[in-house]
Specification:
D-Amino Acid Oxidase, Chain A, domain 2, FAD-dependent oxidoreductase, globular, 2Fe-2S, 8-stranded mixed beta sheet, 10-stranded mixed beta sheet, single chain, 3 domains, Rieske Iron-sulfur Protein, FAD/NAD(P)-binding domain, alpha+beta
């Protein structure tokens, strides 16, 4: 039987923290309990700052606890593209930043004795079509990365080229996050779960869903995407969703990590909790809310892995996560335009390395120190002409979704047509409502309009969520916010 949950969160003893309960005053407020928020909070607390971290759900409950668990500077076949797009120096800075992120994670694991299945192993990117990975290997090595062109790949895949990165890291991300949280608390920090920030002004004063107010000298918004309209990042990024499964192969699993350079993307790594045959497979990516049959995304991963090992594989766990991409392939980290608030977003699904470096940049901004990677990830940059053209194209798509999405979809009947385990758009007294019926037979109804900027929502059958294709907000079947930039729940009919 398949469990619809992150294999990491299902196999970690995550610490629990109370809600905020009362007004607070602190030096630094960190909003978001993922890898960026926890690492930033810990780094600042170790420097002597008084830090409060708030999380709308539970620590690591969303993207950071649903990641693949690869900590690597090997981000697919990216480095030749970065050189062609930005030049050698920018590509070198990105390479060195992420390699430094790998080593910083390793140092934190060692310093605090975090038990998180930490493993050093090679990371591979491979091509199955006529993709020039020999140049990718040469460029990556010239940039100072531990890269080489390889003749072999552990996966039973016919390749046209393989690039190997040595001495990279795999870990159990949820246990790593739990270790960061415990180290932060031990250093004197404070964590409040189930505390959603709904407003944060330039004061800096944060209003929370429980009603408490937090006042701080500095604030870091580490919420995957800054909520609301802060910095305009909702219009400067695109939400990209991937799906993952955990399976047991009929033979020993490959020991290294791998990712395909050609589409559809397939990313693999060992699953230590599944024994020597355990394997994680991630892929079937698409924009949030842009695929109607998400069940098929999971099936395609199991079918692909089964075809490699000539076996019928039943996933033990399946889950999804999303992250945001930027038009120039570099994250936004630093001061939001026109605001004293600090942000970090656009990690391109490589948040364990990029996010760790982002935490160092945010720490140094607050402590008024230089950081060698701060300019590279400048949160206020506009980008080159190609970036601007991409932004225009993306926002034209959003505008079309906003206008056409409300009128194009016809429903199949009334609420008596909602089957157990299904959801979608239905008719209620002449109005279109979003409805779903859980496996206990309970019917949930919502107004299927995103509370961020009013875009139409789509039912995600595979994950049982309401998803917004405009900017990536996601909601539970009964309308609670799972991921922003929305901060308010869905209305009810």
């Amino acid at each position: 039987m398949t469990t619809s949950a992150s294999v990491w969160l299902a196999t970690a003893n995550m610490p629990r923290y109370d809600g905020i309960g009362a007004d607070r005053r602190t030096d630094v407020l960190v909003v978001g309990g993922g890898v960026i928020g926890l690492t930033t909070a810990l780094e600042l607390q170790l420097e002597g700052a008084d830090v409060v971290l708030v999380e709308s759900n539970r620590i690591g409950a969303r993207t950071s606890g649903n990641t693949t668990g690869k900590v690597t500077s090997q981000h697919g076949a990216i480095y030749a593209q970065l050189v062609d797009r930005h030049g050698v120096e920018v590509a070198r800075q990105y390479a060195m930043a992420n390699q430094a992120g790998v080593e910083r994670v390793a140092a934190l694991v060692d310093r605090f004795g975090i038990d998180c299945e930490f493993i050093r192993a090679p990371a591979f990117v491979y091509a199955t079509e006529d993709t020039d990975l020999r140049r990718e290997a040469e460029v990556a090595a010239e940039l100072g990365l531990p890269a080489s062109f390889a003749a072999e790949l552990e996966l039973p895949v016919k390749t046209t080229g393989v690039v190997r990165f040595d001495n990279q890291v795999q870990l159990h991300p949820a246990r790593y996050l739990a270790g960061l949280a415990e180290a932060f608390i031990a250093a004197g920090g404070r964590i409040f779960e189930h505390t959603r920030v709904t407003e944060l002004d330039d004061g800096i004063e944060a209003k929370t869903e429980p009603g408490a107010v937090i006042r701080a000298d500095h604030a870091v918004v580490a919420t995957l995407l800054p909520f609301g309209t802060l910095g305009g990042y909702f219009a400067r990024t695109r939400p990209q969703q991937s799906h993952g499964i955990a399976v047991r192969l009929p033979v020993a699993a490959p020991t290294g990590t791998a990712i395909s350079a050609d589409g559809p993307t397939r990313s693999t790594r060992p699953w230590p909790g599944g024994g020597p045959n355990g394997l994680i497979v991630v892929g079937s990516g698409h924009e949030v809310g842009d695929q109607s049959d998400t069940d098929a995304a999971y099936r395609s991963l199991a079918d692909w892995a089964g075809s490699l090992w000539n076996a019928r594989l039943e996933p033990e766990y399946r889950w999804s996560a999303h992250d945001y991409s930027t038009p120039d392939h570099l994250p936004y980290v630093g001061k939001a335009p026109g605001s004293p608030l600090l942000v970090a977003t656009g990690m391109h699904k490589w948040g364990l390395s990029n996010g760790t470096i982002a935490a160092g940049i945010l720490r140094d901004l607050i402590l008024k120190r230089d950081n060698e990677f701060g300019a590279l990830y400048d949160a206020g940059r506009i980008g080159d002409a190609h970036s601007v053209a991409t932004l225009v194209k993306d926002n034209l798509k959003v505008g079309k979704e906003l206008v056409a999405g409300h009128v194009r979809r016809l429903v199949g009947g009334g609420l008596d047509h909602v089957e157990v385990g299904e959801g979608g758009l239905y008719d209620l007294d002449g109005k279109t409502v979003g409805a779903s019926c859980d496996h206990d037979g309970r019917l949930h109804t919502v107004v299927p309009v995103c509370t961020h900027l009013g875009c139409p929502l789509r039912w995600n059958q595979g994950d049982t969520t309401w998803d917004c294709n405009c900017h990536g907000s996601r909601f539970t079947p009964d309308g609670k916010v799972l991921d922003g930039p929305a901060t308010n729940p869905l209305a009810t009919p």
